[in-house]
Amino acid sequence: MHISEKVKRAVFALLCAIICCISFSTVAVYADEREIYLGGFAAGFVLNTTTVEVVGLCDVLSADGIGSPARESGIKAGDIIEKVNDVEIDSTSDLNKALAQPYKNYTVTIQRGGELMNLPVNPVTDKASGQKKLGMLVKDSVNGIGTVTFVDKTKNVIASLGHPVTDSAKNIMEINGGSIYSCAIYGVKRGMRGNPGELKGSIESNYMIGAVNKNCSCGIFGEVSSELDTSNLQKIKTANIGEVQMGKATIYSTVDSNTTCEYDISIVKVDAFNKDNRNFVIKIDDSDLIDLSGGIVQGMSGSPIVQNGKLIGAVTHVFVNDPTRGYGIAIDKMLNSY
């Protein structure tokens, strides 16, 4: 069969285009390979919530005696303050401003068990401060200890935890910003079968290392503070989950003496498509870590997992009945979250 010169030229041009596309695709893959700073150090988190929750009731000393208007009105611990006289309440500051208004009557709208209730209440003037009080303790923030996974100075991002902060109903908590602080670890409660351990530390509120802007299924993310010194942090490349192998790996964590240490683990299962981001099952092999903490404890969430010199993920959960085993999230998921 005779093939014309025109057809030959068209086929040749098509082959050249395919070869060029393959070449450029290969270059793009390598160009996208990221280099970031390895974490492994402890951090304290203070997250501003978008709700004001009643955490307790207390008495107020006023000219009329001692009492709690909140208790008398039927407000209970666990209630969410939604409004005061139709004024939206998103923070304790909003609540204090609403109480300072010269209303003749006050109605507090609360959320309890998913239902809204309007409760009439009569604030009293506290003798000590001269301010109107309801006689209740409220909070508009949550705090805790975790571990930084990595710092991406190119994109000015600090990433941690590897899992979300959730409310009492296990829903991802909506936040209105927050702060990440340096944290001094002063002890550890060993994990035991059926009783997870935890890191004990104090948040150093005078040393902020990041400003939180996101709480999602893959962790807590924020902007890196200018106070964070990365000169002593190790630069590391990342690996996608397809490169992860069953077998030996290490984690970096700060469990004792405020020193970030490397501990031996094994990757015993890889699940790239796990819907809960439990992409790895890991086993602690390091006898020093087991002697010290019993294995994985609360506060180690976010501890980076490294294999073959590359960052592959972060520790997220511990098995309640076996503290030497736990889950990890693939670093791909965290990198794609910001």
TrEMBL record:
It comes from the Bacteria. This is PDZ domain-containing protein. Residues 115-338 form the Peptidase S55 domain. It holds the Pfam family Peptidase_S55.
